[in-house]
């Protein structure tokens, strides 16, 4: 059951916000949706957008400027939050921005005290998808994209679920989380200290292991402050080059990690996905 919190007209479509009770996350969740004007006539394909550290569902909808092209292409945008929420959901002990609330990393936690709520993989792949496809005018053609932590989530979930997403794209993804500080911290906290338990959420390792991947499109700014230490762009490039994956990776001169970068190239990503979201 979806409770509509708000609805605003945008490029002839509707920017919506919903609340619902999540069984998987054991809490109340909010998420945002853009429905293009075409959704008034028939069911439309959906692009899931996974956001990065510190974000809610509202960063992308208010800053990326995706609605103009989504309206033109007839694509719905489904924008989940980045973690479970609520007073009884455990956070990082020190309130850090890169673990706990706002930093669910799109994994299913196995470690206490996080496992009861931090099941963002199952939330995005199963619960939210079934809810959206049952209650909103979207069809079962879907793709997935994201930024930073959400770029990791998009590529990892596409690799973990062959056939579920037609295409995948990312801005500045945390592509090799097992080998960067953000990823090691999150995976240790959610999945435990044995790196073997991290492999099936590490995009570079899954590609190296030969997992099939839908067509992949990545943009990375070369002035991104997180590129040297956190993002694994070079490792992703090497892994893609030595695999059979249909991948396009672009290094964009002068761009940083911000939503100004995302806004600059989001149209290319939407057009990339639209070509695969047809029967
Ligand atoms: N707050 C962190 C960075 C967090 C950050 O850059 N978050 C990105 C995703 S990884 C984001 O999208 N932030 C929200 C925004 O720009 O609207 C810091 O200062 O080091």
Walk me through this protein's architecture.
It is a single chain. With 279 residues, the protein is of the alpha/beta class. The chain has one domain: Alpha/Beta hydrolase fold, catalytic domain (Rossmann fold, 3-Layer(aba) Sandwich), CATH 3.40.50. 32% of the residues lie in helices and 23% in strands. The protein is built from 9 helices and 9 strands. It has a 9-stranded mixed beta sheet, with helices on both faces. A hairpin with a 4-residue loop joins strand 2 and strand 3. The longest helix has 16 residues. It is globular. The model has no long low-confidence stretch (mean pLDDT 97). Glutathione binds next to helix 1. The site of glutathione has 13 residues, from helix 1.
* Major beta sheet, strand line-up: 1-2-3-5-4-6-7-8-9
Which architecture name does CATH use?
A: 3-Layer(aba) Sandwich
Shape: globular
| Sequence stretches where pLDDT stays below 50 over 5 or more residues | none
Helix run count: 9
Largest sheet data: 9 strands, mixed
- Structural class by helix and strand composition: alpha/beta
CATH class: Alpha Beta
GO cellular component, one term: cytosol
Keywords: Hydrolase, Serine esterase
Organism: Pseudidiomarina aestuarii
Function: Serine hydrolase involved in the detoxification of formaldehyde.
């Amino acid at each position: 059951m979806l409770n509509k919190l708000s609805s605003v007209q945008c490029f002839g479509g509707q920017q919506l916000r919903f609340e619902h009770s999540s069984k998987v996350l054991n809490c109340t969740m909010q998420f945002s949706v853009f429905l293009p004007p075409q959704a008034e006539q028939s069911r439309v394909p959906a692009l899931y957008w996974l956001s990065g550290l510190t974000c809610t569902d509202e960063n992308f909808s208010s800053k990326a400027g995706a609605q103009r092209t989504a309206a033109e292409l007839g694509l719905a945008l489904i924008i989940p939050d980045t973690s479970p929420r609520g007073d009884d959901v455990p956070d990082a002990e020190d309130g850090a921005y890169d673990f706990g609330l706002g930093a669910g990393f799109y994994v299913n936690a196995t470690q206490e005290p996080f496992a009861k709520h931090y099941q963002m993989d199952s939330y995005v792949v199963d619960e939210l998808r079934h809810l959206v496809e049952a209650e909103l005018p979207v069809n079962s053609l879907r793709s997935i994209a994201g930024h930073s932590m959400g770029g990791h989530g998009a590529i990892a979930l596409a690799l973990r679920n062959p056939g579920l997403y037609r295409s995948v794209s990312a801005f500045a993804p945390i592509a090799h989380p097992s080998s960067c500080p953000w990823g090691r911290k999150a995976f240790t906290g959610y999945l435990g200290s044995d790196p073997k338990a991290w492999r099936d959420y590490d995009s570079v390792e899954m590609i190296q292991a030969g997992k099939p991947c839908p067509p992949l499109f990545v943009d990375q700014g070369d002035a991104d402050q997180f590129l040297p230490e956190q993002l694994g762009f070079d490792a992703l490039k090497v892994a893609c080059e030595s695999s059979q994956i249909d991948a396009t990776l672009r290094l964009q001169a002068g761009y940083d990690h911000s939503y100004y970068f995302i806004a600059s190239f989001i149209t290319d990503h939407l057009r990339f996905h639209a070509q695969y979201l047809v029967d």
